[in-house]
Amino acid sequence: MASSSSANTTKAPTKQGATLSFPDSFIFGSSTSSFQVENIAANTGTDWGAYIHDRFYEIVRPGEVGPQWDDLKQAERDVQMMRDLGLDLQRISIEWGRVCPRRGEFDEQAINYYKQLIHAIKKVGIEPMVTLHHFTLPDWVAISGGWENPQTVQHFLRYVQRIVSELPDVKHWLVINEPGVQAPYGYIAGYFPPHKTNIVRFFIARNNLIRAHKKGYRLIKSLVPQAQVGSAFSCMWLRPNDPHSRLERFGTYLGNYIFNTNYIAACANDLDFIGLNYYFGYYFDLRLSEPDQMFRQDSTMTPANVPFLGVTVRPRTFRSDFGWPIAPDFFYSALRNIYDSYKKPIFVTENGIADRDDVYRGMYTLTHLVALQRAVSEGANVRGYAHWSTIDNLEWNEGYSKRFGLIKLNPVTGERKLQRSAHLYSEIAKTHTIDIDHLVKRYIRPEIQPMTHSVIRELLQCHTVRGMRLQYCK
Questions:
Q1: What's the CA gap between 416 and 40, in Å, rounded?
Q2: pTM > 0.85
Q3: Which CATH class is domain 19-472?
Q4: Rounded distance, CA 369 to CA 257, Å?
Q5: Backbone phi and psi for residue 211, each to the nearest 5 degrees, phi listed first
Q6: How far apart are CA 417 and CA 392, in angstroms?
């Protein structure tokens, strides 16, 4: 990437008491997906619905029903809470299996539900961003081979055509969510449906997902030329532990290509913007002395509970309930590198932390928005930020045990309460500014405040090694 001293770069402030600003056009929002917020009973005709039903009390505890967004009034109340926070965008998804319960058939009642949901979002003054495929497949598609079957692309396009035709006033579409997670988790790790471990099938599924994006993009643009269309790409960013080591720099480049950018590169000609989902990053370390574990041992993500060779974190790094390191400087690096590489506008479609007791979410949100603002101030065309998630929801294999929500949810009673960290996010969204000292003092726990200031100081002093494309912070 270009050095931070390039022509389109401005020097960032270095005082911890600085007030940082976002452009007036910058959009703040939050994200959900339909399967994760609707009652599971509404989506039994999906591969994920069948899988969870078979393991019901391993994943979902007795009495847990979640946010129940299949109740339109409840969904509208939650979205109104986001509007009251000052947010302008709500990312949702449409459940393919609910809309197309059988091959060649559309459920008009389900389509009408999503039309009413989008109307409800607009009614409270928020713009919807709609994802067409967020991990789940209709049962009949999964049984016929899922993404291994090239006919799935054609089935998907028929669904896309119907939905987009019904919703011509939606301005922002995401064709597919995280193909770089769906393909390897489903066909290498065996952690997502269809729970296979076959490298050949992985590449077939990967290529069909990319074809689905490209053809889906072109179809949407033919139906609604003014729409902005992208897909959401997962990003686990890597940086060299020793930025002067050529081997570690090469390993970092290769790792970032494999985990992050190869799907973007494959779809780049068919993107109006890049949707970026970022949660954490790691140092690539060839010493392999203390490889990190990507998930805690108490997590139910058993296949991933093995050391991930070559990645490490710095001492005193705070972690999420998943065990993921809080690494906002990696977020900055990812934004700069991806924008400089592809020159496509970026929309951060997911960023958040599993934090059941809301201990670190304020720090996480604040420091990641400082990192994002720094990237924007240096010329990265980042147009918006959607926090994951609007409300505590079904976190796939983890059930309701991992909590990401701005709204804290009791999944049994449905009781809701805005998190303290949501009010921090609200102050930033409403003012388009980050008053560092004020926000730290008001919203960050006293014992975490010194580290928060330290992280922010380092974020505002990021620089590059001469001749390197990989940005890093001291």
A1: 19
A2: yes
A3: alpha beta
A4: 25
A5: -60, -40
A6: 10
